[in-house]
Protein 1
Amino acid sequence: MLEFLFQALVFPGFLAAFIVGFLYEGIVRKIAAHAHHRIGPPVWQPFMDWVKLMFKENIRPKEGIGFLMTLSPIVSFASLLTVILFIPIAGSVLFSFQGSLFVVIYFLILYSAFFAVAGFATGNPFGYVGGVREITQIVSYEFPFIVSLLTLGFLTGFEIVPFLSLHFPFAFLAFVAGVLGKLCLPPFHIPEAEQEIVSGHLTEYSGPRLAMFELSKAIGFWVLISLGAVYFLGAQSMITFIVNSLVLLALIIIIRTIFARLRISQAFRIYWFVIGPLAVIDLIRVIIGFY
Amino acid sequence: MHEYVLPFGPQHPALLEPLHIKLKVDGETIVGSDIKLGYNHKGIEKSFENRPWSKGMYLSERVCGICGHFHTSCFSQGIENLLGLEVPERAEYVRVLIGELERIHSHLLALGVVAYEMGLDTLFHYIFRDRELVMDLQELLTGNRVHFVMNVIGGVRQDIKTEHSKRVEENLERIEERCRHYIRLFRSDSLVKSRTKHVGYLSKSKAKELNPVGPNVRASGIDYDVRETGYFAYKYLNFRTLTTEGGDVLERCIIRFRECMESVKLVKECLLKLPKGELKSSVPPVIRIREGLETVSRVEAPRGELIYYLKSAGEKPYRVKIRTPTYQTFHILGEILRGYEIPDVPVIVASIDPCISCADRMTVVDTNTNRERIVTKEEIREGKC
């Protein structure tokens, strides 16, 4: 029982996700800043921002639906916490059964969908555009993302276990593209493009509500990078897990530094007509047993 | 999907100056736009009227933070016209030299902002780092990074020292090299091209009709540059007007890079040809100009043609009218925004390089009826509005 609680609340559960998620964000910002020839904020800056936000005023706009505005950060946060339970990080996993992959896919969609709901709930035109963009982006990236997870799922019995997918480069590509889309990272930071629509769906959010969104984004970082490190790069021990996570993080930083933001139509085309078909190639290879 | 109004500004992260564009949007496509000014009106033209001519110089420097040197050049040129004053040749060269350095820094700033609006932070920071090279030169030559206060009526305040010329040439070489690199990058990088090519298109005939100025009109294939008239030292220099066909955001960016390279050439030529002689012709301490005398003075600022209209009331101006380039360029926004998508808006707006601080005009809104109306000068004088 004590071990169960430790796993759920400390490692690989809530506390690790909380700390390392913010740390990942900080590392990405710091290294990207150095690539820009800037100094950049300290690595704990996202965490400090979060603490500050927690003590700020909670403002609800007149047109906003307060119930939905409070609910959506909590749901997206809770759905991510649920996903952590199914990922075997450094050999410790809480729930594991055949078909747990589908649960993970479901909760990951829920996490993104409530970002869109959050945009619509504010009644702000920027939030509205952000929400529409988020929905369009979900429709775009979920196809290659799910196909890439299912490709490995056929071999692992639809359960998340450490698995090295060297034979499936396209599935890995689709997974990374999906992660970029889910975490709103360049070049797919379209729903919260600050130059176009201020903060998109999060424009009207402030105080603890915004803090909860920041937290769920940070935990999203931890969850998706851990998923990649375990499921695609086959991390079994603690050391391989750390190395794999850093490799994925480096990949994200490189992509973040060299890419401009796409238009939503361009992103849709890339996901459906470039990355999607490539991911399907790997899926077909698995089904007909040619790998 | 129904049409809705998306505000762009007056407070918006994309544009740090208070410009308000009401975008009529259908889904992601822009079907109409309406520009509203008046958030940054400083009443500068009015303040000119209660200052002596010489103090007006300080004011005109502060019309704009980016192209302040051109404002004083234009204002002092007007006063020199009114006085019939000859500016020494060396002073003319120094004015051109500093002006061209300022043009480089203004263009690089605009291009950095375009890169930032595309969401390409790396390019933005790189261009701004290269802009520091020319900022350093400005500090070296004039003592200030912005607001150089180089112009005085009848000449310039400070000389260009020969010991600086090596450093100047080094930095200019580097800037030229970087500009060439960026032109290559804009022409070849597929992501940059996809965000800028065929976006914000302004055809040659439309450009003639709407009449924007500066790089915006030159990118549409019309060669119009006030420097060709040969004011200041341009008459001695080997200057040619650059134009490109195309008229989209990409071409507007490319022409700015090419103009930077042209400016580098001009600065080098200035340093080479700099004649010896006086810096300033003698001007009486209190400038008196015959009442009712008027003149129009114009220079080519980084954003295009800048016009000052001056009318004298003796020791003070009776009227100073400033026509800044951005004010003339605003008209094309409605044309080049229509039909494009929301993500293109900041890129298009940044590509015309608007300077709201220069161009802002007063808007009077009657709070009772909530209606805007035009107020005559007499009404303002008598404080009726």
Protein 2
Amino acid sequence: MWGLNLPIVLALAAIGGVLVWRRAHTLVWLLYSLGALWAFFKFGFVVPIPQSVATIYLAITGLALVAYASSSRERLAETVQPIKRLILEPRYRLALAGLLVALPALAAYNAYADLTMPLEAPGFGREIHPAPPPEITVHDETVNMTTGDNPYLHYKADDPELYGKHLENGRRVYYENCFWCHGDGMGGDGMFAHGLNPVPSNFNDVGTLPALQSSFVHWRIAKGGPGLPGPGTPWDSAMPAWEKFLTTEEMWDVNLFIYDFNGFEPRALGQH
Amino acid sequence: MKLSVPMPVRLVLLVVGTTAFYMYLGQIVPQKEAHPPPPVLISAEMTTEDLVAVGAELASGKGQCLVGCHTVGQSGPLRYPDLDGIGARAATQIEGLSGLEYLAQSLYEPAAFIVPGFADGMQPIDQPPISLSEDEMKAVIAWLQSLGGTPTVTLDTDLGY
Amino acid sequence: MNRNRILFGIGVLAFVSVIVTVRLGGFLVDNEYRQPDRQVAAQEEQGETELTPRQQGIVDEQAADEAEARARPYEEAEYRTVPFVGSRVTVWVLAQLHLLFAAFVLAVPLFAFIIEFVGYVKKEERYNKLAYEFTKLLSVSFSMTATFGAFLTFGLIILYPKFTNYLMHIFSPTFLPYVLLFFLEALFLYSYYYGWGKFGPKMHLFLGFMLNIVGTAIMFIANAWLTFMMSPGRRDDVDGDGVPDFVSAVSESGALLSLRDAFFNFTWMPINIHRIIANVAFGGSIAAAYAAFRYLQAKTDEEKAHFDWMGYVGNFVAIIAFLPLPFAGYYLAAEIYAFSQTLGIQMMGGTFSWLFVIQAALIGNLFLGANYYLWLGMGRMEGGVHFQKFIKWLLIAIALCFAVWATPRYAISSVSEIAAMGGSSHPQLSYLGQMSAKNTAVNILILSTYMSFLLYRRTGRQSVHPHRQLLTRAQAIVFSSAAALVIFYGVYGYYVDAAIRIRFAIPQVYSVLAALVVITVIDLPLYRNAAQSGETKWGRMPAVSQYALIFIALSFTWLMGLMGYVRSGLRQEWHVYGVILDTSPDAYTPTLGFATQVVSVTVLIFFGLLGVVFWLSSLGGKKDWEPKAVADGGDRLEGGQAA
């Protein structure tokens, strides 16, 4: 519901309810507010919110809590009371010792977590499959991106023999040109793949080829990385513009082949 | 036992600390330096294709079309109309105006026709502060035509303005 | 340390520095290359007149240099540079410092005059004293303003000679009136300050009034210079088609067409309004910081009571002026938008959009600080625990609005976060990043702060009005319907087109303003002659409240620096937008990180100088101050007598 992780949210609310019922101390409330909001931002959303925003929110929460605790002499005294007792009264000595160990341990863990965080490039919001132009021109032939389709696809039903020839030609084209990067098994793991950013497409992925029309794939083959529109940048892909090396027929054939090899059908017009 | 920091020290700490905090905020947001657009030169022998390239440069530079106003190929809640496919769409926007005339009118007299659902807000592009010259205007129109259509503008085309 | 010793120390320091300067100058002059004496002596002995090849080379070189210098024609410099910091940063810092002192000097007479006037009407001496206390800060600040003004003028002439010359071409007729007004300003300021208690009250009020008129006129003239740089012309429907056209005040090459259009240009009035309000808020907060400074130094209870009250009044002025400030800001932004789409988009969506996230943090801090001070102030009253329970809810409202306002439209996120979100905006949070949510948040912030103030006003007081229950309920209804209306428009904004959505800001603003006015009008009679459950104990404030006042002043100053940057930086590579291009190496727009560094350094310099101003003011005022007159303090600025 509303993109929230209901079990977590309900659990946090339940703890809050218990605190109301038990008439919890101000200090407990402050600690609960900070902890609960931290948990809410971290785990409360189905799609986790970015760390930077969560930090802003927690900073504001922290500021507000400090302001609340110190907004009158009485409240400040009340809030600090348990801390004073923890430090001064002998019977809490064990708890105090525990706290004195726990706090540096927490800081140490934090430092450890920061250092072992996997290194990540900053995000630039690059779109992997940006919106194509309405139509493209390949070798003086205009292909409409919405209605265009692979001209040889219909042979699959009409003329299986001719279809096989086109497939065979596509296989030749693929293993002469494409497998260096896209890999023997089309897993996007060819011998040059590790040096490229963005990485070559993985055609085995059910979210890639079946989600695209064959006209889109034709656009990407023909125009390559240099033809990517603004949202597909920065770091233009290293994919060459194959229209400069292949004939139109070869490009449609390899298009046919990569679908066939993986057992996928191109996305049909109007299909979601 | 009472720990006490003298008042002037506290004041200095407060002043320096607060200022440092705000400065820190300034450091953690994305950092971008914006340089003035380099001059784009249009020479007489440029073909339509050259004009498209110059127009695209003008659109994100001096012409400022893509600096926060228009988008190409985006949907959702937009500020101003998306330009994707404008080259094909232009001819059918206003009856009696060809695609070229429509694009020229939208640049010289933006208020003459407002795409339904959007607010008026564009300024004539031939006037300050953007002040594109007529040749630059033709380059931008060539670029617009290339978005979904086939550019036809040359430097000899008469825009009618 | 005793003051005489300090003054003696300063005297010695001045003497030493004069000597050091003279010696250093002498050293530099003497230190050019000379012939070793021995060689000269040897040559003279031998009677040789022939030069060695090296000497000959030096002589030739000098001759060549001289010939070149003689042949060089005079060229007018377009720009000059400053080593290390660069000319832009130099002018930037100087202008900002000038502006900060000027804002203070213009604002203090405004509320000093009002406070004096209140004292005159109510025949209460303590208001008069307070107004005088504020005015004491003026004379040193006035000199600082003039000094930095001169410094800035020289900076502009030296570093941007060609452009400064251009501004002279446009505005030279306004310089003489400016200078005359400045002269009058000095006259009125010093007669207002030194004439305290020496003129009749009406005459003295008249001087204060004239001081404000002249000060405002000076600011209006200076505003014309800088707004011209942003909007060199006006918008007017010349051809009668219902669409305002741009009427440029200058020709395409920059020659003046109409001084009138250049002066009364498009953004002139919006800046005037925004600056007056912001000046008062800023001046109030700086005056409150002065009071806080003195409070922290105070030894006796009387002193504490006095400066607590002064800090309260200063902060009160700051908050009252601060509440309409976001509206004035929106008006200014809307006018900039209306003047030039490009400027508007650049400001809110383009290069400067992150600046407004920082601004949100600053304004959130200001609201939080102002409310915090009010809540602490409830501790001054005897029996003031009644309203404490509301603080929690106010705080939650403020923190929520703060969070909404600080939510960026596009969050900074790592690759994996973008992958998880499926784009650069979060499916739920992106709603909070939009204008509808932010307008709603700032309106609720204003309402909450006003609520805090109302609660503070009520603490320890009991209304004796015959219809008090009815009136209180009416206030509650007005308050909650304004809040409901603001939230309704905020939510409804998501369901309509952008063109309609932007118009929703207006009913939101009006409902909040109307609510503030109506509630105030009801509140004044409601708490007139209210019964007080206990005395207001001025001076019974924890020290942290005074640091909060200084924090508010700091945030205000920093905010002014930041907003000054965006107003000026918005033009990007233009000196005069659309007309005169900046061709200096500093024409680019720096990163936000660099801009905030410059702002921070400026703020630190300003506070350093402010420390000097405060110190000097506290020196001058010692013997004039009479503790007895103010020790009976009570919060009666808004009307009402202690029962």
